[in-house]
Structure formats: structure tokens, C-alpha cells
Design the sequence.
């Protein structure tokens, strides 16, 4: 097993303000956008001049085994399933390749774009035995580059339909489902409509996975189904849906919801039989059926657990159709009805089984059927991988990525006119507490790339070895992994008693901040050196200082000084505690070009291809500066002082900035340090 990947303490994470509201990062990141736009031409010329396709391992990812779980939800079951797979693969691999390097596992967690990926990422097990990424999108579509997966898994997801069959809601259709909210099995026309939709969805799933799986790859699916010859209403799942339907009818009688709403409501679920699946799978040309079997189910064992189970699954469906205000009443009524009919309920036919029951099945399947000599473990065909570190929630990350993709395509097409076009796999990284939900909703359409979100601190390893071709990061590397301990120690010469940041006027404070920055950059470079292929490029944009300029003499430093003075005033007003302010320092450091040059000369992995300053154009009004600072700093303030002071702090900030604005705009300009590195052999 490769080394575990430690997730950093979330208290040290400072994500930008999430969501898309007034004070969020997304609409208040014009400074960063200007920086990204300023280096657009630089990115283009850098790729044209320095990217050598013949030296890049575009078709290979060394010793990486890729697993995807489709329909992951928020955990923990997806992690149990993945860990079962990893253990089984390791067991077989180690028995065959005792003297070879161990596998590195990359796991992709997929679900709809509106899935709560933020919660999923916070639930990731520690220490991790794999490199994790979240992939938003409907699994009935392509989500991965060709031949990029070795094992596909899905549990309790395939029975969800992509849409309700149109016929069942059409009052003029023989399949109008007027007396039920699901496919009971008692109407042949309704069954046929649901079955046809399921077959379409399943065919799309198989066709797309056929493109994404390597030849010899395995797919393990767990589908809640029906015993042959049993109607859905004769099973536990069907009984649950029937109870739900009767609750809706009762709520109409109580005047809580409209009858028309209920008539138009059908559950997007279909439970196939084993025979039905066998017929469907026989028609596909890509997969052989190695094993198909029925397993008995163990459903929740009490009224409370049944109700909680159903609410967890159905709440979003109910909310979308009837509104959130109906949910509590619905499931209170549901619990009463299940309780009243519990004896009858437990006598229903059993469905099919859960995750723990397939653990041994997964193990024996992999032992018997996974043929490593036939898998393309070291190769991913024609895929070009890009990672953006410190992505936040968009839109700047998408602008930067699209600039890179266009430049790569331009050069590749000029050299490989008769070859298949590249497929781009883009990984968006930020701290585990970043708002990935908003990021995924902001992905531009149509997509020119396959997208994945990677949670974690970029000072650590986040990707398998030699798996990236280009790394990008804008306005992120100047964030420190932690506050230097010396600056908060009252006995240290570097105690930063009169400031909340590295002003530049105390040599000891500057040295402490600089040392921490150097450690962080070294860790960043060492981690990326393992992840980038030889010949791969790294393009970084770092907010810095002109040589010889103190931080407080620049716009960024002035912003931090104003914030510090606001905190002092809030102490005088009794809004915050003085000790809290004394203990507060910003986890930011703005290096000079000279400082970066010295630091980079000491690294053995990257050649410095370009390093140059770009003039910074800061927000042009008091309001825009304030919004910019709030979007960046709100989470830092929340973590140290609590969210109740944020609004007052930035009201005061705007007043102070307005009073000195003419002096403010005369400050020394910051610079954006544009840095291009190439991964070299050592």
C-alpha cells in the first residue's frame, strides 16, 4: 500500500466565501480575474514554446489504479464499497507483483451536480488510502476520458430513472398512472413505460462506461430489484411507496397539498427483475456478464428507522414537487401509517441486499476475474490532464483552464493533424471546506473537458505519480498553511504585537513569515514534482511585492492595516475581546521576485522558464475593494472571531477606507508574479 495521505486540520483551512450571494467570492473576484486575463497571452506563448508533446507521457499514468463509484451520495457507504474494492485489488496485485512498486489508487466519486459534495468531502475517511476526486454529472452521460477507469462500482443508484416516463403522466395515454405514484406492477401499460425508460437509461450507462473502462476492466453493480414474478407492491420497497402515496392522498383531504399536484406526481424509480436484467445485458456488445445473482435484503428494523430511511431518500424528490413546507407533515403521517400496519409490512416479500453482503462477492470477483496483465494500468489513452490548485468557486478557475486548453489544442493540432484529438481531464482543487457544490454548479456549458473536484491541502500530495501534464494556480500560493508560531508567542522576538500581518517593518516578523512561506513552497514543489510528468509545465500567479517595498506600503498591506485598525476599534466598542485581536494574524505572505528566485534555485525538480512581474490593477472603488476583501477574508474572520462580527467589521472597514481613499490609491502597487516552471529529470 502506498503511504496514507493525511488531511490537514480543517481549522487551518481558509476557503473563500462560498455560494453566489452578495458577499461571496464569485462576484467579488475581479482582481483575480484581471490577473488571469493578464497572463492569457503568456500561457499561450509558454505552451507554444515550451510544451514538448513527444516528451510528455500523455498516454500513460504510472502504476495508478482508477476506481469510480457512480451515485456516491454523501457517504459513508461509498467509502465502505471503495475500501472493499481497494483491499481486494491490493490482495491480488501483491500476490502477483511482490517485487514491483505498489499500486496507487485514484478514486472518483460521482453523483448529480446538485449532490452535496461538500459533505461528501468532509466525510472522507482519514487516513486516506487513495487519492480522491468528486465528479459531478449524470452517469447516463460520458464523465471520464476514454479507457481511464479500471473498476466501476455502483450501489443503489441504477434503479433511479433519468426522467419520469411521459406516458404515465399523460391522461390520454393507456399508461396513465392515475391510481399510484410508482410502478406497482398491476398495470401492464405502466410497467412497460417504466421498463422502457429503465432500459434506455441502462443502455446509455453501459455504452458510456464501455468508453471509459479499459479492456478487461470490471463493473460491479448492486441494484435493488424484484424476485421474478413478484409485483413491486408485494415487496418492502413497493410497500413504502404505497404508504407514501396514501399519505399524499390524506394530505389532499386535509387541504395541505393540491389534488392536481398528487395526480402529476410519480416516483422516478424502477426495480427490475433478474430475468429482465439478463435480457437487457445480453443485447449489449461491450460487456460479458461474469456473475448475476439475487441476494436477500435486510431492511430497516423499526418504524423509526424505516421512516428515517425513506426520508433520507425521498426528501429531495418531495421538496422539488410539493415544496419543502410539506416534508415534516408528510413523514409524520408516514410514520403513523407504517406503525399501524407494521405486522403486515414485515411480512412483505424481501428485496435485494445491502453493501456488507457483497463484500465477499467483490473480493472473490476480483480474485477470480481481474487480469492485471490485460489491464492498461500504466496508460490512459490520449488524455491530457490539467490541475488548478486553489480553485475556489469559479469563475476565474474556468477562465484559466479554458485558456490553457485552447493553447494546448492549438499546439497539439498543429503537430498531430491526423491523430485523434486530445481529451482533457481537469481537476479543480481547494481545501476540504471549499464550497465545491457552488463550483460544480458554475462549470460552464457545454464543457470542453471532463471535470473533477479534488479536496485537500495543496502542500500535500493529492494525485498519483506522473498523472498531470499542466499545473496552474492563481492567487493561492501566498496563503500559508499555518500562522508562524513565533508571531503569536509573547516571549518571542517575532511576536507580532502591533499588527495582524507581516508589515515588513519588523525583521523578526518578516523572517518568521518568510520561513513559513519557504517551507510551504518547498512542500508544494515537492508534491507537484511527484504528480507532474517529466516535461510537464507549472504556471503560477502569485500576488507579490516589488523588491525593496514593505508590505504596508502596498495596496494589499494597506488593506490589512485598515482591517487591523477596525478590529482595534471594535475592541474599544466592546464588540470583541482584546486578547482575541492580539492572537490574530493573517495567514498570508507576499514574496518579492528576488525571494522567489532564491527559493527556486534550491529546488532540484523544476527549471525556471519564466519569472516576471505584472502590474496589479486593484478594485477601483471603496465598495469594490470592501467586497473584494470580504469575499477573501470572511472565513478567516469567522474562524477566529465568529460570524456575528463580520457585517459590523466590513461596515467599519468601508468607512475607514472611504476616509483615506485618496491616500490609499497613491500606495505602491502590488505586483502579480508570473512564474513558469518545467518538470525536469533529476
Sequence:
Amino acid at each position: 500500500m502506498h503511504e496514507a495521505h493525511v488531511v490537514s486540520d480543517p481549522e487551518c483551512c481558509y476557503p473563500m466565501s462560498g455560494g453566489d450571494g452578495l458577499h461571496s467570492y464569485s462576484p467579488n473576484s475581479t482582481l483575480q480575474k484581471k490577473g488571469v486575463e493578464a497572463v492569457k497571452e503568456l500561457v499561450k506563448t509558454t505552451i507554444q514554446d515550451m510544451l514538448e508533446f513527444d516528451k510528455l507521457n500523455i498516454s500513460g499514468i504510472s502504476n495508478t489504479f482508477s476506481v469510480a463509484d457512480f451515485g456516491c451520495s454523501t457517504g459513508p457507504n461509498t467509502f465502505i464499497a471503495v475500501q472493499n474494492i481497494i483491499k481486494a485489488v491490493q490482495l491480488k496485485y501483491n500476490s502477483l507483483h511482490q517485487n514491483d512498486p505498489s499500486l496507487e489508487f485514484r478514486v472518483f466519486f460521482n453523483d448529480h451536480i446538485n449532490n452535496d459534495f461538500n459533505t461528501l468531502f468532509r466525510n472522507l475517511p482519514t487516513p486516506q488510502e487513495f487519492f480522491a476526486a468528486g465528479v459531478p454529472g449524470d452517469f447516463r452521460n460520458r464523465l471520464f476520458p476514454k479507457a481511464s477507469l479500471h473498476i466501476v462500482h455502483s450501489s443503489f443508484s441504477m434503479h433511479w430513472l433519468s426522467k419520469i416516463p411521459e406516458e404515465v403522466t399523460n391522461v390520454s395515454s393507456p399508461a396513465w398512472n392515475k391510481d399510484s405514484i410508482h410502478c406497482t406492477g398491476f398495470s401492464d401499460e405502466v410497467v412497460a413505460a417504466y421498463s422502457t425508460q429503465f432500459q434506455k437509461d441502462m443502455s446509455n450507462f453501459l455504452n458510456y462506461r464501455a468508453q471509459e473502462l479499459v479492456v478487461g476492466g470490471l463493473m460491479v453493480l448492486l441494484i435493488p430489484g424484484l424476485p421474478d414474478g413478484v409485483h413491486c407492491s408485494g415487496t418492502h420497497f413497493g410497500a413504502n411507496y404505497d404508504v407514501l402515496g396514501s399519505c399524499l392522498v390524506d394530505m389532499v383531504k386535509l387541504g395541505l397539498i393540491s389534488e392536481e399536484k398528487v395526480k402529476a406526481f410519480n416516483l422516478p424509480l424502477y426495480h427490475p427483475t433478474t430475468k429482465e436484467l439478463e435480457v437487457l445485458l445480453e443485447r449489449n456488445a461491450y460487456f460479458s456478464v461474469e456473475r448475476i445473482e439475487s441476494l436477500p435484503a435486510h431492511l430497516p428494523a423499526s418504524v423509526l428507522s424505516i421512516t428515517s430511511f425513506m426520508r433520507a431518500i425521498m426528501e429531495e424528490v418531495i421538496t422539488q414537487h410539493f415544496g419543502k413546507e410539506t416534508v415534516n407533515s408528510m413523514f409524520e403521517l408516514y410514520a403513523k401509517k407504517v406503525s399501524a400496519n407494521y405486522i403486515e409490512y414485515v411480512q412483505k416479500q424481501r428485496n435485494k441486499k445491502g453493501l456488507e453482503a457483497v463484500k465477499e462477492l467483490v473480493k472473490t470477483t476480483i480474485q477470480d476475474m481481474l487480469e492485471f496483465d490485460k489491464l492498461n494500468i500504466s496508460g490512459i489513452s490520449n488524455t491530457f490532464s490539467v490541475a488548478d490548485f486553489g480553485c475556489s468557486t469559479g469563475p476565474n478557475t474556468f477562465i484559466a483552464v479554458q485558456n490553457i486548453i485552447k493553447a494546448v489544442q492549438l499546439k497539439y493540432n498543429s503537430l498531430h493533424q491526423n491523430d485523434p484529438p486530445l481529451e482533457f481531464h481537469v481537476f479543480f482543487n481547494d481545501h476540504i471546506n471549499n464550497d465545491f457544490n457552488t463550483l460544480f454548479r458554475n462549470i460552464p456549458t457545454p464543457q470542453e473537458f471532463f471535470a473533477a473536484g479534488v479536496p485537500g491541502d495543496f502542500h500535500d500530495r493529492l494525485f498519483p505519480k506522473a498523472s498531470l501534464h499542466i499545473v496552474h494556480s492563481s492567487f493561492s500560493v501566498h496563503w500559508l498553511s499555518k500562522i508562524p508560531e513565533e508571531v503569536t508567542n509573547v516571549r518571542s522576538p517575532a511576536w507580532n504585537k502591533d499588527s495582524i500581518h507581516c508589515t515588513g517593518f519588523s525583521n523578526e516578523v518578516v523572517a518568521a513569515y518568510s520561513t513559513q512561506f519557504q517551507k510551504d513552497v518547498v512542500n508544494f514543489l515537492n508534491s507537484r514534482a511527484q504528480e507532474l510528468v517529466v516535461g510537464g509545465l507549472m504556471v503560477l500567479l502569485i500576488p507579490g511585492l516589488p523588491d525593496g517595498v514593505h508590505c504596508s506600503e502596498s495596496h494589499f498591506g494597506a488593506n490589512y492595516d485598515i482591517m487591523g485598525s477596525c478590529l482595534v476599534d471594535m475592541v474599544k466598542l466592546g464588540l470583541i475581546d482584546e486578547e482575541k485581536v492580539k492572537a490574530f494574524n493573517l495567514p498570508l505572505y507576499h514574496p518579492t521576485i528576488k525571494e522567489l528566485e532564491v527559493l527556486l534555485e534550491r529546488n532540484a525538480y523544476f527549471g525556471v522558464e519564466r519569472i516576471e512581474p505584472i502590474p496589479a490593477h486593484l478594485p477601483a472603488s471603496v465598495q469594490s475593494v470592501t467586497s473584494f476583501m470580504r469575499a477573501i477574508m470572511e472565513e478567516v474572520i469567522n474562524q477566529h472571531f465568529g460570524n456575528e462580527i463580520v457585517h459590523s467589521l466590513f461596515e467599519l472597514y468601508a468607512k475607514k477606507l472611504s476616509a483615506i481613499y485618496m491616500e490609499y490609491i497613491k500606495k505602491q502597487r502590488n505586483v502579480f508574479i508570473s512564474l513558469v516552471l518545467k518538470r525536469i529529470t533529476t
